[in-house]
Here is the input.
Amino acid sequence: MEIIRVYIPKASKREVFGTIEQRLGSNHLRIRCADGKTRMCRIPGRVKGGRWIREGDVVVVSPWEIQDAKGDLTWRYTKPQESWLRKNRYI
Here is the structure.
């Protein structure tokens, strides 16, 4: 299966890669980010609809400007997209 399009985090929006460590209930997650921080993140409705989000998934996190220890989950990668990112050394 050929990957046509993969979302890459934008530095202008302060987005970073992350891996889901733990689901905390409702729409909250604990995510280990690529910048070395662990953030408490929430899942907005536009991301939640129709997508299963599990521990170990690779995601894009947008940290809050006011509280850097919190953020919003922006994007979740599928397994083929994740393997493409690893192969091309993004993560």
Remarks:
- Strands lie at 16-25, 28-33, 38-42, 58-63, 70-76.
- The CA atoms of residues 13 and 62 lie 7 Å apart.
- The chain has one domain: 11-87.
